[in-house]
Amino acid sequence: MNTTAATRLPPPATIYGRFEARLLAMGWLKGLSLLAIRLWLAQFFFFSGLTKIKSWTTTIALFTAEYHVPVLPPEVAALMSATAELSLPILLVLGLFSRFAALGFFAMTLVIELFVYPGTTENYYIMLLTGAIITNGSGMFGVDGWLARRA
Q1: Could you tell me the pTM of the whole model?
Q2: Which of 2, 71, 90, 119 has its CB surrounded by the most CB atoms within 10 Å?
Q3: Range of the domain at 62
Q4: Is 16 a member of any domain?
């Protein structure tokens, strides 16, 4: 059987390379993934913040008896936590200062993992998702991405 160069298939590595190049060219796919991560993180932490301010006395009792945050008094830790959980999600939804907001949630989750509930799998997932925002920013569907394209 005589095979000419025109009828030969390219090697699998070349096919995969072309596929990968097309995926990378579709920046919207990465942007959409980052948007989904930002929205999920925002709702997760915002609802947690709403729960904290719903019953402030219960929140203070939890920070006193169960959440043993090192160095900070329970009242200060509760106030800092509620403030972050109610303000940083707004930045994530808008995609404004996304890396800063994600870094705040990463630090908060790291403290929870180390001092409050060690070994909780959910904390690892949250740190992984916040790490994606820290390393990639908001993507093209955020104010940060829009500002970067204008510069």
Answers
A1: 0.82
A2: 90
A3: 30-150
A4: no
